[in-house]
Amino acid sequence: MGLIDRWLRRKPSPSPQEPISEAQAVPATWANSPTHIAILERFLSVRDTKGGVPDFWGPVLGIHPERVVNGMLALGLLEPVSLPEKVEFCHTGAELKKMLSLRGLKVSGKKAEQTRRLIEADPDGMEKLCAQRKLARCTPSARQVVLEWQAKQAEFFDKATDEVISALDARQFKAAINIADVYRKSMFHPPVHPAQDAMTIKSAPRPIQERAADLAAVFTMRPKILNGLTPEQWDGLYLSYAVWQLLGRAAPDKCMPGFTGIGAMDSATVLRMLSFYIGYQRDLAQWRELGIKKGTILCCNSGSCDACMALDKKRNSLDKLPELPYKDCTCALGCRCYVSPELGI
Question: How far is CA 293 from CA 223, 286, 289, 316, 318, in A?
């Protein structure tokens, strides 16, 4: 530091950082980093190294994602794919047929066969055509790390599911919520696009008493469209819905073992109909609080049954509208009618 700098009490400017190598872009502890394992997970199948990981992962990594991917290549965690795989990955079947036709080659067959013909006939041309694309996939050792990590995540989910179901069976709704909250906080959450994050409505956490009361109410709801369920099936359906809402994923094999559906609706549609009913009842309550008294039923015209089509554009007071999802619906996808509230007085 010079005399004038000391007199003015200036701080010395930081020395420029030494540029790091590609390999140094990946920490030595990558195998214990969910973020880096999640990047490798994206490369379990062939992916372009440029743009293979979105730019918005950068702030979490502290470095541009492409440099991390290149570092994984340098460390042998990712490996380049062969020319045949490049050609097949980069071109549609129609494009391959056009290239074959231009070269006077047979155009029929599977993509792998078409690709082989092109490379045998014009290896240099195919190499130049794909030269700008840098494709990679996990090496066997990196794949094994990812698969082991996925297995552990599945174990955590199974354990949380069993504990949540046990609490719900005992109707200990607060305990079930607490278990689910701990599990969700321990999960790895991949970065989200800033635009998506900006559009997400962030509300204050609701008191656990309110959440438990809402959950308890679910176990009393019986939409008429599901009247064919037995008492045991109702209980399993409530469990499946609660696990889905609390943990973010349903566990039908644990909650409703052996259940395949009811009528034309499969088990997933049955779960969706319960969710539809719960959401519709919530909407009705909110509309009434806002002073809305009437609504119009609108039906999805594509593939809807006659019973649902008969409801289309029916207008009435909220109290006199038929229950949705509609009990007489015979659609394999379940009822898809909805109510458009009338905002006028």
Answer: 22, 11, 10, 9, 6
